[in-house]
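Title: Prediction job returns without error message
Component: structure pipeline
Severity: low
Priority: P3
Assignee: unassigned

Description:
Job completed but the reporter wants confirmation the result is attached to the right record. Sequence as submitted:
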Amino acid sequence: MLKKITIWLSAKEAAKKISRSVDTVNRRGVAWPPEGEYGHNLEERIPYKLRWKGLRMDPDGEPEKRFLEDDVEALLEEPTPPRQPKMGLDLSQQ
């Protein structure tokens, strides 16, 4: 049986893949949930969010934030969430 390979992307790579800014990727990012919480398993996606883990890219390096590629790809398929109406004065009717 073949085992699925998990691919992790930097914020810059994830942003390029979904044609958004690195800031957008970081705003949608959530730390990997602890064991027992929803979203801990690979198959349990958190809608409109990108799960990340701090992974070491080299043995002596500091952990770097890496986003799960499956979450990034799923974000492309999800409908855009509805925007909240802006609160404020409507000056067009004066």
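Comment from assignee: result matches the submitted record. Helices lie at 11-18, 22-28, 69-77.
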